[in-house]
Amino acid sequence: MHSEVWPQPLLDLLATGDDRPVFEDGARVVTAREMHVMIRRIAAGLRGLGIGPGVGVALKLGVSAPAFAATIAAFAVGARVSGLRPGLTPPQLDHLLSNDDATLIDDATVTDLLSTAASSHPLVAAGRPSDIARIIYTSGSTGDPKGCAQTYAAMSAAWAPYPDRWPPAVAELASRMQRYLVFGSLASQVMLEYGILTLAAGGTLVNAHPPAFPAAIVEHRATASVITVGKLYQLVRDQRADPADLSSLGALLVSGSPLDPGRLAEALDVLGPVIFHGYGQTETGMISLVTPAEMLASPAALASVGRPPTVNDISLRDGELYVRTPAQAGSYWKNPSESAEVFVDGWIRTRDLAELDPDGNLRLLGRTRDVIIVNANLVYAGPIERTLATDPAVAEAYVVGRPDEQTGEAVHAYLVPAIGQTPDPALLRKLVAHRLGEAAVPRTITLIDQVPIASTGKPDKNALP
């Protein structure tokens, strides 16, 4: 059974990888053997702190080889692992630590743990299948981030570390991931999942210094990375104006906001056949993926997010997409009411409207929820509206999302002032940033006399100027 429990396949890969480079950080190149030793030392140190199966750890780490080793070591000892992404507000951070009853592990702690002597016994994954392995927190734009709880059984069913489980589109992506740029946070589900895919494909994780595109691709001769819609648009503009040498690039995985087919075709034309358009959620992992070859061969594929792999089940109920994936989360951590709304009889409500075309391509048509995707972060309109309305100068607040060249989508606020009052945009932005984080801050704040009313008698936010 141990050979099947996450992260045993990765531990085995590193234990037998010898001098193969697996993590490059500037001038420092870490081999598989060195990474395995780091993981064993940190695992021994975590056990010395009393951390093992069922015990919570919260990782507040940068992007580095020791941070990656600490992440894998926490799974190896069977802990309940949550990653704290950058940009959390102080109230959100306090909420997560108290809600999970977790031991905080930061970069300084990892440095101390690396001085622990590794056990002489082989490192064997200690996770119990029914235990929670990972809590992946959402953006927190509803106030407090929701934690998607994934068991060790679910993580062990994932495709990333097993080449024989890769769907065809993932196998094509894996063949291009010799040098995968990592940046931002290893707490990111996408960043870690495709990092594991890279190692299983024989590639190397490369820490992005500098993190900006296209400089990081050029400097590190990167073959693959993840990119948000806004950054993709910027990269296309930069390449048209002042082309950089991107000849090393084989794959850009686009995540986050919906991608317009025309802009996607332009990106393929300017950057070449390197764009992989993916669709997934924190609750589900990858739902579907479309390859450059598929998009170039078919306009229908270009307007879709690809064919879901056969291991994923798809159900359309009154136009809303429900999915089941092998490695999906099972609930929201300590949040039974929202769990009941989203996790339904083994299915996950995506709250996205979709359809399948005659070729089996999945097309996204809209959302059933009032949500805006800013730099791949879900931002809910309701909490922003309620936060803005706490200002005495604001009588009514309405928030919408609109396409944005820099962030994919952006938040725009419309305010009806209180009688005799003039709201201060700077103070309102500061208030939203403090309570909900920077992604929720309105790009524009517009004063209106009244909100348009639809035929139903309800506010019609689509009619806002």
Short description, anyone?
The protein has 3 domains: 1-156, ANL, N-terminal domain (Rossmann fold, 3-Layer(aba) Sandwich); 164-369, ANL, N-terminal domain (Rossmann fold), CATH 3.40.50; 372-463, GMP Synthetase, Chain A, domain 3. It has 16 helices and 24 strands.
How would you describe this protein?
It is built from 16 helices and 24 strands. It is of the alpha/beta class. β20 (371-374) and β21 (377-380) form a beta hairpin.
Please name the defining characteristics of this protein.
465 residues; alpha/beta; Rossmann fold; GMP Synthetase, Chain A, domain 3; 3 domains; six-stranded mixed beta sheet; five-stranded antiparallel beta sheet; 16 helices; 24 strands
